[in-house]
C-alpha cells in the first residue's frame, strides 16, 4: 500500500492507494510548530499498518522534520519528499527553478498524466495558482494570486470597521447590508478574477482544457474539477 501526503498551508491531506485506486483519504489542520507526537495524535488510528511506500509533497518546510519522524514511526518505509529536481516529464521554463513551488509541479505533472497536453492547471486554496503546460510538455510558468479566504482576511485587516464575513457564495449579487455587500464583493470578485485570468490565458495560448483543484475549485464554472489531483500526482511519481 502507498501513502501519499500533501502538506499544504492550511491542511495536510493523506491518501492511501492500493495499486492505482485511492481507497481512503483524510486531512488534518497544518500546524507549523507541530511535533511528531502532535501529528500522531491528530492522525489517530487512520493509517494502515501495511504501508510499504510513502511519498510527500510539502510547501511548509517548518513541519517537514516532524512529519518525516512521524511517518517513519508508523510505517515500514522511508518517506520520500518530492523536490524540484525530480523528473516530472516536463521541460520547466522557470527561473530560478528552486523558487517554483513543488506543489505546482506535482499538480501540473498529474494533470498532464491524466488529461494530456496542452492544459491549464488552476489550484484554488490558500493561494490561487494558475499554470500553463503547452503541447510540447513545456511548463511555461503561471500566475499566483490570493486565495478566497486570504482576500477576506486582508479586507478586515486593512479596514477594521468592516465586519468579518464568511468567504462563501452570497444569496444575491447585490447585497442590501454591509455584511452582504462584503460577502458578494469577496466571493463574486474572487470568482470573476480567476475566471477572467483563465479566459485571458486560454485566449493567449489557445488552450481550452483547464483542470481545477483545491478547496474552492467548485466555485468556478467550466473546467474539469479534480479534487485529488495532488494525491494522484504523487502516486504517479511514486511508481515511475
Protein model, in words:
The protein is of the alpha/beta class and 240 residues long. The chain folds into 2 domains: 2-81, ATPase, nucleotide binding domain (Nucleotidyltransferase, domain 5), CATH 3.30.420; 91-147 and 184-239, Nucleotidyltransferase, domain 5, CATH 3.30.420. The chain contains 6 helices and 11 strands. The strands form 2 sheets. It has a 6-stranded mixed beta sheet, with helices on both faces. The longest helix is centred in the last third of the chain and has 28 residues, at 178-205.
In summary, what is this structure?
The chain has 240 residues and is α/β, with parallel strands linked by helices. Helices cover 35% and strands 25% of the residues.
Strand fraction:
25-35%
CATH class of the largest domain: Alpha Beta
Radius of gyration: 19 Å
- The beta-strand count equals 11
Q: Please describe the biggest sheet, giving its number of strands, its sense, and whether it closes into a barrel.
A: 6 strands, mixed
CATH topology of the largest domain: Nucleotidyltransferase, domain 5
Query: Terminal Cα separation, in Å?
Result: 16 Å
Average per-residue pLDDT, rounded, comes to: 95
Q: How many separate domains make up the residues?
A: 2
CATH architecture of the largest domain: 2-Layer Sandwich
Q: Report the order of strands and helices.
A: EEEHEHEEHEEEHHEEH
By secondary-structure content and strand pairing, the structural class works out as alpha/beta
Report the total helices: 6
**Largest sheet: spatial strand order:** 6-9-8-7-10-11
Stretches where pLDDT is under 50 for at least 5 consecutive residues are none
In CATH terms, the superfamily of the largest domain is ATPase, nucleotide binding domain
Could you estimate the helical fraction of the residues in percent? 25-40%
Shape: globular
